[in-house]
Request: fold
Amino acid sequence: MAEEESKSAAGSGELAPATTGDATIVEVGKVSQWLTENEFEHQALERDHLDVEIIRVEPDFLIPLATALYAYGFNYLSCQGGYDVGP
Reply:
């Protein structure tokens, strides 16, 4: 059922929630707060083992979002990105 919800949400242009079977509440960081305040669509994910904030964005919005973050002071020292081209 979670897979069906994920597929339908992904097809509608919205970010589907990443589900692993366990419902976890993720504490958002400075980047996610700024993106929310400025109405950028994204999803906050669990922090990594070094306590680095991780967010998820649609591929089409990666460059504009990264440009906006850089323009407002989130540079490479405090923000890194990656992408997954897999299914």
User: Anything to note?
Assistant: Helices lie at 2-11, 30-37, 62-71. The radius of gyration is 14 Å. The mean pLDDT is 76. The first strand starts at residue 43 and ends at 45.
